[in-house]
Structures are given as C-alpha cells and as structure tokens.
Amino acid sequence: MYKNLVQKFSDGLVIYRNTFNTESNWRYDEYYKFIFTPKGTMIYQLNHHDIKIEQQQFLLLNPHTKHRQVHFDVEKLLIGINPKTFQLTFESLGFSPSHQIQFAEITGRNPLISKWASFVLDYLQSDDFHEHPAPDHKELTLFMENSITQLILSLIKGTLNSHTHDLNVNYVQKTAPNLYNVLNAIKQSYEKSWSLDEMAKIAGLSKFQFAHSFKEQFGISPYSWIQLYRIMKTQKELIHTDEKIILIAFRHGFTSLSSYNRLFKKIYGMTPGQFRQRYQDLPI
C-alpha cells in the first residue's frame, strides 16, 4: 500500500494517506469530497465547528465548503467527485438539473458505503496493483471511472441531502431488527419528545446497550438521528409552502426556532430561509 497516493481521473481524484505531517491549510475545493476513515480517527475543521470522523465513518463535504484537516492518526481515503458527474447521475434518477444537490455535512456510517470504500482499499492493497502498475496509474484511473457511479448512487440514497424524502433504514431490517423496530416507531411519532428508556424498551435492551448499539450501527446517537429526521421532514414544507418557518419547526418537534436554525445551518451551511430560497421551485 502506498503511504501517499494522489491520482486524478476524469470524474475527480482519489487520495490515500497513512502518514500525517502537519495541519492542512484552509481549502475551498470545487469537488464534492467523500472522506472515509478505514482505521483510527480524523478531525476536520469547518467554518464554525470541528467534525470528528471515527473508524469506518464517512463525511461528505459540498463543493466550496471552507474546511481544513487538523488530524488523522492511521488511514485516510478521500474521493473528490466532479459536480458535473454528480449532476449527470442525479439527472438519471429523474431530478431537475437546475438544482445542485446539497448534502448534510455530518458524519455517518452506512454498510453499503463502507463496502464500496473497502472495495477501493482492497484494490489499492492488491499485489497486482503494486507489482504491475500501469504508467501514470492508468489502471487506477480506469478502475475509479467505472466504480464512481456506484458511490454517487449510494450517497444520494443513503444520506441526508436537499432532495431526501425519507431516511432509509431498510438495510438494518435483517442485521439489527431491534434497531429497525425503534426507528420505525420513531418515524411514526418523531414530533414527540423521546426518552432513552422508551427507545431501549422497544429494542429490548438496556439503555447502555441500546445507545452503544445504535452509535455502532449508524455512527451517531439516537437523539442526533431524531433531530436529523426532523430536519428532513421540514425540508418539503420549506420548499413547497410559504408557511412561517417557526411554525414548520414547531410542528416537526423542535422546541425553539433558534435551535432549529442553528442545527440546520450546522449541517447544510445555510439557514432554513436560504434553503427555501434556493430550492423553492424544486419539483415534488
């Protein structure tokens, strides 16, 4: 495995590192940046907060998001994706080409996305790649160009973004049915105030076991998941109605407008009002 690998291809670039020297400078890249931690942890600094990416978690940064890396201790895989490539894939799913997709800039854990990242890492670690490298890594370029669409589709369908209508949890129905039951219960009554006791009881676990299992499966706490689901449920009304934002926030379980605005801006880099203005003519 290379200690430091940087390779551009037609749809973006791939970076692998397992050595860390210094903090990076602030950047405003034109790419979507998929950042995955195979082992160890990473810390990225954004405008107003730091984000810690733990082992087997990922973070997706939108184009032109101000950021810099301040730490990683074992391994880092970064895939830069050309927005045009993202948009073409997006259009193939029937979405309007006039609305660039905006992703929630939060850490997550998803088995399909982790599987894709592991597939790329396995290729980079393969003997064939190291013993018979093509000039200028042409083989790697071809490999990435033929697999990047799979990553884009997984990110669109498996993460919170500006065009999300639901948070898919079907992939845990067989592997973690108790957690699946909890999430379905939350979806039915997400507006109410949930306690850890209530959620753990549905899962048939102690509070500690439930909180640990949930974080291990999804990469975030149960309360964070509920807040993200509430954010997602407000998006349709922001886009397709002229209702006051404070009423939308309260109807979907937020107890104050300031907490809603703060969380929305933290994950999207814009206020709910700015989000409404950008996507207000988005087709249903």
What does this structure look like?
The protein is α+β, with helices and mostly antiparallel strands. The chain folds into two domains: 155 residues, Jelly Rolls (Sandwich), CATH 2.60.120; 120 residues, Orthogonal Bundle (Arc Repressor Mutant, subunit A), CATH 1.10.10.60. The chain has twelve helices and nine strands.
Secondary structure layout plus pairing:
Layout: E1 4-9, E2 12-17, E3 32-36, E4 42-46, E5 50-53, E6 58-61, E7 67-72, E8 76-81, H1 83-92, E9 107-108, H2 111-125, H3 127-131, H4 138-145, H5 148-158, H6 177-188, H7 196-203, H8 207-218, H9 222-240, H10 245-251, H11 257-268, H12 272-279
Antiparallel strand pairs: 1-2, 2-8, 3-6, 3-8, 4-5, 4-7, 6-9
Helix pairs in contact: 1-5, 2-5, 6-7, 7-8, 9-12
CATH topology of the largest domain: Jelly Rolls
Which spans have pLDDT < 50 for at least 5 consecutive residues? none
- One letter per element, helices H and strands E, the order comes to EEEEEEEEHEHHHHHHHHHHH
Q: What value does the Rg take, in angstroms?
A: 20 Å
Tell how many strands the DSSP assignment holds.
Answer: 9
Query: What is the share of helical residues?
Result: 40-55%
Spatial separation of the terminal alpha carbons = 46 Å
Biggest sheet layout: 6 strands, antiparallel
pLDDT averaged residue by residue: 90
| Name of the CATH superfamily of the largest domain | Jelly Rolls
CATH architecture label name of the largest domain: Sandwich
Molecular shape: globular
In CATH, what is the class of the largest domain? Mainly Beta
Order of adjacent strands in the largest pleated sheet: 1-2-8-3-6-9
